[in-house]
Amino acid sequence: MREAISVIGLGYIGLPLAMCLCEQGHRVIGIDVDPVKLRDLSAGRTQVMESYEGEPLASILQRHLASGRFVPTGDWAMAAEASSHIITVGIPVHENGVPDPLPLLAAIRSLGAVLRQGDLVLVRSTLVPGMMEQDIIPLLAETSRMVPGTDFAVAYAAERVAEGRAMYEFRTLDVVVGGLTPACGERAKALLSTLTDGQVHLTDLRTAQLTKVIENVQRDVNIALAHQIKEIAEHHGVDVYELIRLANTHPRVRLLEPGLGVGGYCIPNAYAYIAASLPKTRPVPLLTLARRINEEAPIRAAAQLERQLAALGKRLRESTVAILGLGMKDGSNDTDSAPRRSLVNWKSE
Ligand SMILES: NC(=O)c1ccc[n+]([C@@H]2O[C@H](COP(=O)([O-])OP(=O)(O)OC[C@H]3O[C@@H](n4cnc5c(N)ncnc54)[C@H](O)[C@@H]3O)[C@@H](O)[C@H]2O)c1
């Protein structure tokens, strides 16, 4: 069995990642602060809906618990059994749009205290670009009392997988890695190359952090465009899906389809992370507008429903509405990060 790896944060990303590493023959110490999650995982239970080669995640989890290859724990001292540490604790964004780095920084602080000479710290969480240099690396230096880049390696490689396909995509997607030093980047590349058959692209820390949020915000803008096209199509009495299908027959056009909004951790938060990384004197009006259009998508859908019911002589507030699918997207049971201004909370005028 190869050396142990710690995976810090056992959520939608961390747990399937830990299982992929176990499948590769690594011993994995999985660390989380949620006692309920740890109790469930230790009993072989998980709500995360993933599978690999037809085997559900819970069954993979039970196999690796039984073999001792996976150890879920809240005990940070156990992270010292690992020489590589992969962090997947996220940065939630509050209702006011402000990212909250405290859970991630708490994890960094705890890790720093158990870090050893020669270890690798690989951050996979999506960050406010610049956090590696401004917050994470200084905090690791302070809590470990060692010199990052000399005594231990630090690198950043954002996670790109999509929920529902995570275990397949960990094995196949390209990864962009930024090291604190070229040697740190190479060390992270060596680890990631045991996980993915895709290419591992080496760059600097800041470019690696920005690449992830730019990928996500590109999707936010493209989805906003789809929502705007829906309005245009409606005005012209044209079927928006047919319109988009036909436009996409052009070789250089690739429109997305409109939906009920944008859910998940990644796409809605990208704007907040980018905005938090920029001074107020450098606004990003295109991104701001796209975010607003997407945030308001559920409200527009509810208003449309109200109009259509009215045309049938019915009132929305007296109707029972079935919403088919509460997950943040198809194939996901993640309802926490479904479009924020939900239809359920919508109040008609
Ligand atoms: N979910 C996705 O589809 C997806 C895709 C790509 C990237 N990402 C990114 O991956 C990261 C993780 O996302 P997620 O969906 O797995 O989040 P999640 O909320 O499901 O999991 C985070 C886990 O971290 C744990 N945690 C919180 N504070 C901790 C601490 N101090 N120490 C140890 N554990 C702690 C939580 O209990 C939770 O289990 C985020 O940065 C997200 O943006 C997510």
From TrEMBL:
<dbReference type="GO" id="GO:0016616">
    <property type="term" value="F:oxidoreductase activity, acting on the CH-OH group of donors, NAD or NADP as acceptor"/>
</dbReference>
<feature type="domain" description="UDP-glucose/GDP-mannose dehydrogenase N-terminal">
    <location>
        <begin position="4"/>
        <end position="187"/>
    </location>
</feature>
<dbReference type="GO" id="GO:0000271">
    <property type="term" value="P:polysaccharide biosynthetic process"/>
</dbReference>
<dbReference type="InterPro" id="IPR028359">
    <property type="entry name" value="UDP_ManNAc/GlcNAc_DH"/>
</dbReference>
<dbReference type="InterPro" id="IPR014026">
    <property type="entry name" value="UDP-Glc/GDP-Man_DH_dimer"/>
</dbReference>
<dbReference type="GO" id="GO:0051287">
    <property type="term" value="F:NAD binding"/>
</dbReference>
<feature type="domain" description="UDP-glucose/GDP-mannose dehydrogenase dimerisation">
    <location>
        <begin position="206"/>
        <end position="295"/>
    </location>
</feature>
<dbReference type="InterPro" id="IPR017476">
    <property type="entry name" value="UDP-Glc/GDP-Man"/>
</dbReference>
<comment type="similarity">
    <text>Belongs to the UDP-glucose/GDP-mannose dehydrogenase family.</text>
</comment>
<dbReference type="Pfam" id="PF00984">
    <property type="entry name" value="UDPG_MGDP_dh"/>
</dbReference>
<dbReference type="InterPro" id="IPR008927">
    <property type="entry name" value="6-PGluconate_DH-like_C_sf"/>
</dbReference>
<dbReference type="InterPro" id="IPR036291">
    <property type="entry name" value="NAD(P)-bd_dom_sf"/>
</dbReference>
<dbReference type="InterPro" id="IPR001732">
    <property type="entry name" value="UDP-Glc/GDP-Man_DH_N"/>
</dbReference>
<protein>
    <submittedName>
        <fullName>NDP-sugar dehydrogenase</fullName>
    </submittedName>
</protein>
<dbReference type="Pfam" id="PF03721">
    <property type="entry name" value="UDPG_MGDP_dh_N"/>
</dbReference>
<dbReference type="GO" id="GO:0016628">
    <property type="term" value="F:oxidoreductase activity, acting on the CH-CH group of donors, NAD or NADP as acceptor"/>
</dbReference>
